[in-house]
Amino acid sequence: MMAALYANDCQIPDKKVVINLSTAELKKNSQIVDLAMSIGVMKEAGDIKAPIPDDAAFLVVLSLDGSIRPVDGMLPAIVAAKKEDMKILYLPPINDFPLDHIHEIELRFVEILHEAI
């Protein structure tokens, strides 16, 4: 995550960054949280001025160069986000995926870190 921020000339706070991934007893074994963490760090550093919606979810993998890739298990992640009343989903560009059945949620497709901002 930090490598993607450096590669995209984002400001990195000159202090220790602690990110709470609740709940602590659940192991985080996916890169699906990298973009959300990057957005939080950029917000803290002042790179992002606008408020971040509470009902937005980032369902992507962030590469070291800041490019966006699909997440394994995309459909269950979308269903889970919808059950959690998310209204905006940030997704990688996907072609062969049944998105026409997804309603009441705004889908935003991003290819690089700066498009998500």
Task: Using brief descriptors, characterize the structure shown.
globular, alpha/beta, three-stranded parallel sheet, 5 strands, 27% helix
- Note poorly predicted spans: none
Provide the CATH topology. Answer: Ribosomal Protein S5, domain 2
Q: How far apart, in Å, are the first and last alpha carbons?
A: 15 Å
The fraction of residues in strands falls at: 5-15%
Proportion of residues in helical segments: 25-40%
Which geometry do the CA atoms define?
A: globular
Q: What is the class in the CATH system?
A: Alpha Beta
Number of strands: 5
Radius of gyration, rounded?
Answer: 14 Å
| Major beta-sheet overview | 3 strands, parallel
Strand order within the widest beta sheet: 1-4-5
Average pLDDT rating: 84
CATH architecture: 2-Layer Sandwich
- Whole-number count of domains: 1
* Helix vs. strand class: alpha/beta
Q: What is the H/E order? A: HHEEEHEEH
Number of helices: 4
Description:
The chain is an alpha/beta fold and 117 residues long. Helix content is 27%, strand content 13%. The chain starts with a helix and ends with a helix.
Topology:
Elements: H1 2-7, H2 34-45, E1 56-58, E2 61-62, E3 68-69, H3 74-83, E4 88-91, E5 106-109, H4 113-116
Parallel strand pairs: 1-4, 4-5
Antiparallel strand pairs: 2-3
In short:
The protein has 117 residues and is α/β, with parallel strands linked by helices.
